[in-house]
Amino acid sequence: xxxxxxxxxxxxxxxxxxxxxxxxxxxxxxxxxxxxxxxxxxxxxxxxxxxxxxxxxxxxxxxxxxxxxxxxxxxxxxxxxxxxxxxxxxxxxxxxxxxxxxxxxxxxxxxxxxxxxxxxxxxxxxxxxxxxxxxxxxxxxxxxxxxxxxxxxxxxxxxxxxxxxxxxx
Length: 169
Ligand SMILES: [Zn+2]
Fold this sequence. Notes:
This protein is an alpha+beta fold. It has helices at about 25-40, 125-140, 150-165; strands at about 45, 55-60, 70-85, 85-90, 100-105, 105-115, 120-125.
């Protein structure tokens, strides 16, 4: 089922998600729906708060559904180490049409649980690293506009207010 994606400034997007403690069928259904929702919007990552569920769950698939081996489910994820820097364009399904450069670590090592509750560690570089950082930020209620420079953030917020006035947001 394709879920409704909340747009900025919905207050749920700014909340810290609660840890997941039950690894049950309800969680599996939510994860399946989150992948379907991400694919329907051509998104490489989606965090549970974006579909109105304030929990520490995110799904990532850099192949946009083309390669099942690239499907990643991160539950209760945390960044263990980060190295280097990159400054690349990002978008977010909660900010349709907005693409801006954001500063991120080049490489991160993360720890997370899978949908069965098993802990694993994984490294990501470049795009995957950006995706890990962007999605884990969502679980802390941090949106990518708050990773932009102050100038870019205010320009982006002004653009969103204009779209809201025109009824296009
Ligand atoms: Zn996002």
